[in-house]
Amino acid sequence: MRIFVDSANEKEILYLLRQGIVDGVTTNPSIMLKDGISDVEGAARRLCALLGDRPVSVEVTSNDHQEMLEQARTFATWGRNIVVKIPVVNEFGESSLDVINELTGKAIAVNATAILSFNQALLATKAGATYVSIFAGRIADEGNDPAQTIRHVRSWLDEWEYSAKIIVGSVRTAIDIQNAALAGAHIVTVPPPFFPKMIDHKYTRDTVRQFNRDAEKALQEIAVARAAVAVSGNGH
Ligand code: E4P
Q: Above pLDDT 90, what percent of the chain?
């Protein structure tokens, strides 16, 4: 399974890259706003360079299909690892599948986003999306079970041998990551604050503390034993 970072914060992404756990980055307009980015092009170009060959998703910001296509074509010039995020419908519920299909036909990688149901993932896959982003937290917000949607989409993709990959986003708690991984997500996109929660454990700290204390004690005992041998040696 791959891990993406759901962030546009270069410092945090660099810190995580150095830990060897980052396979890509996803952003959206809300993330850009939260991370204080006004120059989207500059930020996206820097992220693309930072990530090397790993994908960086940047989202279009229009309801109009022509504008979506123009934005997508511009984004694609910012880096060879750019992936264009296209919401499966616009805010009026109009299908974006034609946009997804056209971009895919022009070899621009598409991340079909804001997916909340199995059928949306099915159609985005059929239209040619490289990634289908299932929003776990938002599915749960509506009282539905994201793990079931992820499981169903994964088994359908596998059964029909589609190459689209499931990205699970909208992570709200650490258990969402585990649930997504076990439900068959190819990728989970994780906001930076969750990484310390994933790795840290108070009993692990206690365990390491115990080992360090015992190692210290053992060194002291060895030192005492050596001193005793030295004293008895001097007595001869
Ligand atoms: C990732 O691709 C999504 O844009 C993001 O995870 C959405 O998260 P949210 O539902 O917390 O806004």
A: 97
DSSP H helices, the chain, are 10-17, 29-34, 40-51, 65-75, 97-105, 118-127, 136-141, 146-159, 174-183, 194-199, 202-234
Same domain, 186 and 229: no
What's the confidence (pLDDT) of residue 232?
Answer: 87
pTM: 0.94
Report the chain's mean pLDDT, rounded to a whole number. 97
Nearest CA to ligand 1 atom 7: 170
Residues 18 and 63 both lie in one domain: yes
> What domain range includes position 214?
202-236
- State both tokens at 33: 């706003």
Label residue 5 exposed, middle or buried (CB < 10 Å: 0-12, 13-18, 19+): buried
CA 107 – CA 193 distance, rounded (Å):
34
Residue whose CB lies within 8 A of the most ligand 1 atoms, among 5, 27, 28, for a mutation test: 28
Q: Which atom of ligand 1 is nearest to the CA of 135?
A: 10
Looking at the structure, tell me whether residues 136 and 222 fall in a common domain. no
The one catalytic residue among 11, 34, 85, 126: 85
Same domain for 99 and 208?
no
Closest CA to 103 of 134, 119, 82: 82
Confidence label for 236 from pLDDT (cuts 50, 70 and 90): low
Annotated catalytic residue 85: yes
Give 106-142 pLDDT, tens digit per residue: 999 999 999 999 999 999 999 999 999 999 999 999 9
